[in-house]
Amino acid sequence: MATQRQLTGTSVQPVMNQTPTDSERGENREDQSRSTVSSIARDRNSILLLLFLYILQGIPLGLAGSVPMVLQSRKVGYRQQAMFSLVTWPFSLKLLWAPIVDSIYSRRFGRRKSWLVPVQYAIGITMILLSYSVGSLLGEDGEVPNVVILTTLFFFLHFLAATQDIAVDGWALTMLSRGNVGYASTCNSVGQTTGFFLGYTIFLALESKEFCNKYLRWEPQDSGMIDLPTFLFLWGVVFMCVTTGVWWFKREKREEHAEEKRPLLSGYMKLLSVLKLPSVQAYAIAILTSKVAFAACDSVTGLKMVEAGLPKESIALLALPMVPLQIVLPWIISRATAGPRPLDVFVKAFPARLGLGMVFAALVSWTTVIGRTGNFPIYYYVVLLMVFAVHQVAVYSMFVSGMAFHARISDPTIGGTYMTLLNTI
How far, in Å, CA of 184 to CA of 192, rounded? Predict the structure, then answer.
């Protein structure tokens, strides 16, 4: 799975007195640095394209996250909002059809473009058509919101976005040179975060008349600067334009051992063979059990702080400064994860994140003490923001290094399936 060893038939003879000097070490580091910069420059356009494809992928996800907020303003009950939460299922289940994306394609059109182009066209067309009816579906004309149809349409959008994710993950393994394949995880993390931020935070801010009147306008108006139909239409057009550009101007590299026609079942058989690999099973057990250590801290800390008296609005506001950090961090971490040993970052970040659990436990106790006074001072929020920021560094170090490792060890011949399997873990 993971380790590739090159064996040679020559014996290595010990050489005495060949320890490099400090100047030689400096020259070697400079040569490696120049080589890295040159390698990144060769893949610059591919990295930018991957980044933008992942940004597009995040737009429907962000919009799906913003719809419940709009439904809540329409006085829709929690039961119907819970029904809408089903739209996120395709990303959890995409491993079921990932082998199909790897197995069926046209060599003439391009292995990954065979799926990417029609799927992105379908997303664009769906968003444009939905823009004409989403207002009535949300009950803007005084009607009752049709949550069933909204759930169906956004479920379909998520299914298309999940399929696009499979195709892009697989394409990244061959689009980037072997030395830069670790940057695929950076593009994924930054792109999806940025896309979700645009589709959720930016849309909700521009759709809110209160926010626009307070921060963006000289004279108050009765509506926001943009509504959901307009937002859907604009991004639908962007999807169509970008997809056309990829179709005409981006060529795929010819993959070795690629077959014109491959039996559909062979993709599932290869997935089964990967699951049987002892190294994959050991890695899955290690990753799944490692997350147990953070489960309580990640899921309960915020609730305990609210229970202790911290306003939930304050916690929501503290999340906003984290978004730029979440976008910048992967680029910084990528310098360490793009090398041959990306999991070194994971191993170093693990104890730091584990130790933060005790820090959060102390914060909860401190919050309980301050909560009794009913007044949270500024320095409390400063400390809370700093701890949250350090926590994000640890989280993203583990996340980006893990995905970089997946990209490095995945077999490009079943790249979409391999990446989907490892990322699902």
Answer: 12
- What's the confidence (pLDDT) of residue 17? 41
Tell me the CA distances in angstroms from 338 to 1, 25, 325, 398, 419, one per residue in order: 18, 21, 20, 14, 16
Contact by Cβ (8 Å): 84, 67: yes
When pLDDT is averaged across residues 289-294 and rounded to a whole number, the result is 89
Task: Look over the chain and give the mean of its residue pLDDT values, rounded to a whole number.
Answer: 86
Question: Do you know the residue count of the chain?
Answer: 425
**Are 337 and 345 in contact, with CB atoms under 8 Å apart?**
yes
What is the model's pLDDT at position 275?
94
Cα 398 to chain centroid distance, Å, stands at 13
CA-CA distance, 196 to 60, in Å (whole number)? 8
Q: What is the pLDDT of residue 11?
A: 36
For residue 140 the two structure tokens come to 């803007």
Is the model's pLDDT at 33 over the cut of 90? no
Exposed e or buried b for every residue in 153-179, given b needs 16+ CB within 10 A? bbbbbbbbbbbbbbbbbbbbbbbbeeb
| Buried b / exposed e along 307-339 (16+ C-beta atoms within 10 A) | ebebeeeebeebeeeebeebeebbeebbebbbb
- Retrieve residue 348's tokens: 């170093």
Are residues 153 and 85 in contact, defined by beta-carbon separation less than 8 angstroms? no
What is the DSSP secondary-structure string of 352-393?
Answer: HHHHHHHHHHHHHHHHHHHHTTT---HHHHHHHHHHHHHHHH
* Cβ(193)–Cβ(319) below 8 Å: no
State pLDDT tens for residues 317-337: 788 888 899 999 999 998 888
Rg (CA), the chain: 24
With CA atoms as reference, report the closest residue to 53 among 198, 165, 162. Answer: 165
Q: How crowded is residue 378: how many other Cβ atoms within 10 Å of its Cβ?
A: 7
Residue 335 near residue 404, CB atoms below 8 Å: no
Helix, coil or strand: residue 156: helix
H-helix or E-strand spanning residue 41? helix 22-42
Q: Structure pTM? A: 0.85
pLDDT of 113 over the 50 cut: yes
Residue 206 CA to residue 214 CA, distance in Å, equals: 11
Q: Which pLDDT does position 261 carry in this prediction?
A: 54
Q: Classify burial at 139, counting beta carbons within 10 Å of its beta carbon; exposed 0-12, middle 13-18, buried 19 or more.
A: middle
